[in-house]
Write the structure tokens for this entry.
Amino acid sequence: MSETYETLCGKCSAYLEKIGWKYSVEDGENEKVMRFSVKGNDLDMDCIIKFIAAGTGLTFLSPIPVTFKGDKIFDGLMAINEINKQLGIGSLDFDMETGGVLYNITNFFAGCTLDSDEIFMLLIHLPLEIVDKYNDKLLLLSLGAIDFQEFLNKIS
């Protein structure tokens, strides 16, 4: 029997409890939304996992705490492009209106039964490693503390 969004959310909740992380779950009409925050190496990371009722999948989102404004918008666009070239899983999305950045990954489990915590360990920790790797560098670039060439050197 394949997983439903309710069992996916339940198993993910159980994993977060097992590792001692606090979280909240909101029930919507067609989804469950889990929220938690984690302290990275340098910045806090907010995380959202959406479990969609229409399918057996989930979307992991983590807003990067940066905003590119004015003449930094082009640097932000180029930075996101360079990072996305390096990512093997997920992508960074750039909001042209706000200058905000969001890490996004969607996984589907149609026809699967998830019997171990390992999948949730990967679903949570791998995206967090990616966000943690780039968030401070994007922040420095957005603040003008480094220029685009220095940013490229830091992500290489």
Summary: Helices lie at 5-18, 73-86, 118-143, 148-155.
